[in-house]
Amino acid sequence: MFAKLVAVSLLTLASGQLLAAECKVTVDSTDQMSFNTKAIEIDKSCKTFTVELTHSGNLPKNVMGHNWVLSSAADMPGVASDGMAAGIDKDYLKEGDARIIAHTKIIGAGEKDSVTFDVSKLKAGTDYAFFCSFPGHISMMKGTVTLK
Ligand SMILES: [Cu+2]
């Protein structure tokens, strides 16, 4: 009985450590207008979550720039189309757009940027999306963000 209890406790401890949530992810972007992931999962136990965006291509940001933008899936088309008009100096995002939950700046080849946001901004039961708002990129460069 005692041995069994100890075994269960050890198992709980071990799985607890194994399951410790990683509250950050690195997303790479390329000259092929792509991200290296289509789905990001955020553990509910994370207070904040950090996304580091890298660019492994060779093209400069005015030609093949990328950013990482988070909004609800429903808001994504509107954020992207308003962002297109904002221009590269504004990272192709409308200034003060409340629909944007988090975003990096636009980066070019060899550059990186990261953003950290409060996970409490995400509500259970809402679909979230990430995308690049560089004009024309959203068709290829988007994915889902899920709170789990
Ligand atoms: Cu892009």
From TrEMBL:
<feature type="signal peptide">
    <location>
        <begin position="1"/>
        <end position="20"/>
    </location>
</feature>
<keyword id="KW-1015">Disulfide bond</keyword>
<keyword id="KW-0249">Electron transport</keyword>
<keyword id="KW-0479">Metal-binding</keyword>
<keyword id="KW-0186">Copper</keyword>
<dbReference type="InterPro" id="IPR000923">
    <property type="entry name" value="BlueCu_1"/>
</dbReference>
<keyword id="KW-0813">Transport</keyword>
<dbReference type="InterPro" id="IPR028871">
    <property type="entry name" value="BlueCu_1_BS"/>
</dbReference>
<protein>
    <recommendedName>
        <fullName>Azurin</fullName>
    </recommendedName>
</protein>
<dbReference type="Pfam" id="PF00127">
    <property type="entry name" value="Copper-bind"/>
</dbReference>
<dbReference type="InterPro" id="IPR050845">
    <property type="entry name" value="Cu-binding_ET"/>
</dbReference>
<keyword id="KW-0732">Signal</keyword>
<comment type="function">
    <text>Transfers electrons from cytochrome c551 to cytochrome oxidase.</text>
</comment>
<dbReference type="InterPro" id="IPR008972">
    <property type="entry name" value="Cupredoxin"/>
</dbReference>
<feature type="domain" description="Blue (type 1) copper">
    <location>
        <begin position="21"/>
        <end position="148"/>
    </location>
</feature>
<keyword id="KW-0574">Periplasm</keyword>
<dbReference type="InterPro" id="IPR014068">
    <property type="entry name" value="Azurin"/>
</dbReference>
